[in-house]
Specification:
With 343 residues, the protein is α/β, with parallel strands linked by helices. The chain folds into 2 domains: 116 residues, Rossmann fold, CATH 3.40.50; 182 residues, 2-Layer Sandwich (Dihydrodipicolinate Reductase, domain 2). 33% of the residues lie in helices and 26% in strands. The strands form 2 sheets. It has a 9-stranded mixed sheet with strand order 14-13-12-11-7-10-9-8-15. Strands 3-2-1-4-5-6 form a 6-stranded parallel sheet, with helices on both faces. α1 links the parallel β1 and β2. α5 runs antiparallel to α10, α6 runs parallel beside α8 and α8 crosses α10. The protein is globular, with a radius of gyration of 21 Å. The relative contact order is 0.15. InterPro entries: Gfo/Idh/MocA-like_OxRdtase_N, Gfo/Idh/MocA_oxidoreduct, GFO_IDH_MocA-like_dom, NAD(P)-bd_dom_sf. It holds the Pfam family GFO_IDH_MocA_C3. This is Oxidoreductase.
């Protein structure tokens, strides 16, 4: 049995606890929130009557001595939660983003290394079935190495609340999902970015609802991202729409169920290379999916076996570096180098 304390009992905690309900061998022994009444309400909702409730993470960890902490607090509190977890010899699984600044991200990853604890991030778009299929298909070499990766994200949600007031709202709140998926699917190593943000006259956000970025993913791979939180009409999938151009063909994905590829054939028809459809194989049984559920299961497996989970902080910090690099580029109007030292 793996015992965990969940810190942060806001709306997002419901997704975590819904997943926990489906997992054998995992017990929530404590709930922590600055508003203890909210923690108590969540305990009643999920029948966690034996869980210790409190407003202080340190105090609850002292009392329960769990194996791990689930961090569902606001990003500004991530570092404090992480350091508390590691000081109590706990493993840590945190909601995205890993941290609210590059400095705090590096501090958390380094603290996990020093403590010898497993640290992972809920980067759940990796656990989408078609993301897995694309990664495996490209790795097979069926259409050669990827050279150009293009993603479009156009959705117009009226959230209300903090998102409509925050700075860099698209890049900071949502884009990391698309950035991480791109990096994962083509095995990219981010090296640089140029980005521009703007606010359309029709926007209801304070700042940064629309952005366009060009990333160098190393090895001759370029990733372009175009996105908006206020583009009404012809809504894309939450997973974005994709075109991946490779050496001997291309792949397109609508972000939902339509996934197609074409491979180049010998010979030409006029000016154009001949192509034909090529099947993208179905999901492999070894491919792990399931969003929060899949990631929590991987995290548990890592604790039990002493291995590293796929979304470990030391890797996920590279996707976060893409976000902060894009923000810096948008603020300065220049290309920003994403150095390994900055990750």
């Amino acid at each position: 049995m793996i015992n965990v304390v969940l810190a942060g009992c806001g709306a997002m905690s419901k997704q975590w606890l819904d997943a926990v309900r489906q997992i054998d061998g995992l017990s929530v022994v404590g709930l922590v929130d600055l508003d203890a009444d909210r923690a108590k309400a969540r305990a009643r909702e999920y029948d966690l009557t034996s869980a210790v409730i409190g407003a202080s993470l340190d105090a609850v960890l002292d009392q329960t001595r769990p194996d791990a902490v689930f961090d569902v607090v606001v990003p500004a509190a991530r570092r404090e939660v992480a350091l508390s977890a590691f000081a109590h010899h706990c493993h840590l699984l945190t909601e995205k983003p890993l941290a609210d600044s590059p400095e705090n991200a590096r501090a958390i990853v380094e603290a996990a290394r020093r403590a010898g604890r497993i640290h992972a991030v809920v980067q759940n778009r990796r656990y989408v079935a078609n993301v897995r299929r694309i990664r495996r298909f490209l790795s097979s070499g069926a259409i050669g190495a990827a050279t150009s990766i293009h993603a479009d994200f156009f959705i117009a949600p009226h959230f209300g609340g903090f998102r409509e007031e925050m700075a860099h709202v698209l890049l900071l709140d949502m884009a990391i999902h698309t950035f991480d998926a791109a990096r994962y699917m083509v095995n990219g190593e981010p090296a640089g970015v140029y980005c521009q943000e703007w606010e359309p006259t029709s926007s209801w956000y304070r700042q940064g609802s629309s952005a366009s970025a060009v990333f160098d993913l190393g090895g001759g791979k370029v990733f372009t991202y175009a996105g908006s939180w206020c583009a009404a009409g012809f809504r894309t999938s939450w997973e974005s729409t994709w075109r991946i151009v490779a050496e001997r063909g291309s792949l397109v994905w609508d972000g939902n169920d339509e996934l197609k590829a074409e491979v180049v054939l010998p010979g030409r028809e006029g000016m154009f290379d001949r192509t034909e459809p090529i099947a993208v194989p179905p999901l492999d049984p070894a491919d792990r999916v399931g969003g929060h559920l899949g990631i929590i299961q991987d995290f548990m497996r890592a604790i039990e076996t002493g291995t590293e989970p796929e979304t470990r902080g030391a890797d996920n910090i590279k996707s976060l570096a893409m976000v902060f690099g894009a923000i810096e580029s948008a603020e300065t109007g220049r290309r920003v180098t994403i150095s390994r030292e900055g990750q």
